[in-house]
């Protein structure tokens, strides 16, 4: 299967003229310059991404990508692998955290099932079944995916970005679901950054100290097998997950379609790192929702030169941290669009 065009072609740059107009407007609003802090820069960034003078975040598209991980055979998670499929059903039934936030935000929510170890039964509302494999292979012992599998996962993500564009989305959020995926993300981030596993491996679903030490040892062995390659596609195929690859494709596809992306926590940020390493221009299209409690997330954020909007100690995944940050983006738009200028209000500007 071929790679999506967003993998091989960079996205267009954001709109420099719209950015300059937004900066000029911020200087005319009835406030001291910089007094609204990052809400000002958010509004300017959104004007540049959306290419017009009045940014909006009305239509938010959320896609949660789900897939299982063969590395769970090594005992790296506190939860059984069957939870991935059970949570897909929970998403469909509206009971997950991201389900509640999608309702609160008036956002669309879809789930893309890329392959679970436990087969799912029956039709599930809002779930797109695009099975590639019943989970990845065990990354400690062999490549997690074949060439065709990683290409199919990237294509599945790109297709989700296409649906968001067709629906007129002003913002795209990708979420993850996959027991074992913090192990995969840690291994992938270590490979791309040249970091030691001890610096990036975290408790995931709640491992104790002994479990954390074992998980780091699994990542060490995976990296030894991988051999130190930092090529994004090679690393993704060798160490990634089906959902991580799909999120990578979705981020790149959204950027190619000029849709701002609000990045979630450790898993999604690692996918974003893959995307930016392949196409550095993707970075212009990324905003970062929150800092995860997973220790590896800060290393990935540093590599992306990213400062997230929130730091609430969250580590759930699903896109939940990004969703929590959406009201800040909406506030930035409201202030930029709705405040009066000094001339409009008859207020004296500084001399």
TrEMBL record:
It is an enzyme of class 2 (transferase). The active site is at residue 318. SUPFAM superfamilies: Nicotinate mononucleotide:5,6-dimethylbenzimidazole phosphoribosyltransferase (CobT). One of its GO terms (molecular function) is nicotinate-nucleotide-dimethylbenzimidazole phosphoribosyltransferase activity. InterPro entries: Nict_dMeBzImd_PRibTrfase, Nict_dMeBzImd_PRibTrfase_bact, Nict_dMeBzImd_PRibTrfase_N, Nict_dMeBzImd_PRibTrfase_sf. Gene3D superfamilies: 1.10.1610.10, 3.40.50.10210. Pfam families: DBI_PRT. This is Nicotinate-nucleotide--dimethylbenzimidazole phosphoribosyltransferase. The lineage of its organism: Bacteria, Pseudomonadati, Pseudomonadota, Gammaproteobacteria, Pseudomonadales.
């Amino acid at each position: 299967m071929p790679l999506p065009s967003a993998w091989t072609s960079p996205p267009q740059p954001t709109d420099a003229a719209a950015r300059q107009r937004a900066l000029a407007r911020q200087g005319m609003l009835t406030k001291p310059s910089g007094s609204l802090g990052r809400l000002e820069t958010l509004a300017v960034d959104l004007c540049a991404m959306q290419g017009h003078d009045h940014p909006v975040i009305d239509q938010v598209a959320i896609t949660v990508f789900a897939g299982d991980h063969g590395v769970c055979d090594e005992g790296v998670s506190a939860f059984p692998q069957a939870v991935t499929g059970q949570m897909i059903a929970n998403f469909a039934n509206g009971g997950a955290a991201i389900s509640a936030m999608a309702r609160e935000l008036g956002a669309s929510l879809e789930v893309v099932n890329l392959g679970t170890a436990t087969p799912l039964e029956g039709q599930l509302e809002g779930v797109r079944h695009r099975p590639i494999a019943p989970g990845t292979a065990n990354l400690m012992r062999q490549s997690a995916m074949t060439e065709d599998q990683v290409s199919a996962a990237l294509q599945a993500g790109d297709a989700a970005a296409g649906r968001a564009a067709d629906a007129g989305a002003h913002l795209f959020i990708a979420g993850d679901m996959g027991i074992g995926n913090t192990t995969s993300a840690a291994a992938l981030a270590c490979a791309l950054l040249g970091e030691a596993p001890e610096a990036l491996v975290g408790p995931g679903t709640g491992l104790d100290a002994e479990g954390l030490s074992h998980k780091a040892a699994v990542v060490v062995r995976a990296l030894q097998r991988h051999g130190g390659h930092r090529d994004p596609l090679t690393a993704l195929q060798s160490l990634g997950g089906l959902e991580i690859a799909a999120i990578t494709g979705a981020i790149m596809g959204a950027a190619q379609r000029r849709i701002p992306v609000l990045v979630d926590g450790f898993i999604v940020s690692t996918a974003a790192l893959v995307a930016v390493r392949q196409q550095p221009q993707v970075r212009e299209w990324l905003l970062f929702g929150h800092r995860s409690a997973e220790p590896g997330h800060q290393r990935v954020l540093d590599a992306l030169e990213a400062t997230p909007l929130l730091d609430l100690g969250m580590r759930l995944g699903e896109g939940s941290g990004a969703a929590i940050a959406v009201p800040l983006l909406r506030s930035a738009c409201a202030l930029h669009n709705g405040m009066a200028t000094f001339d409009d209000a008859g207020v004296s500007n500084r001399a």
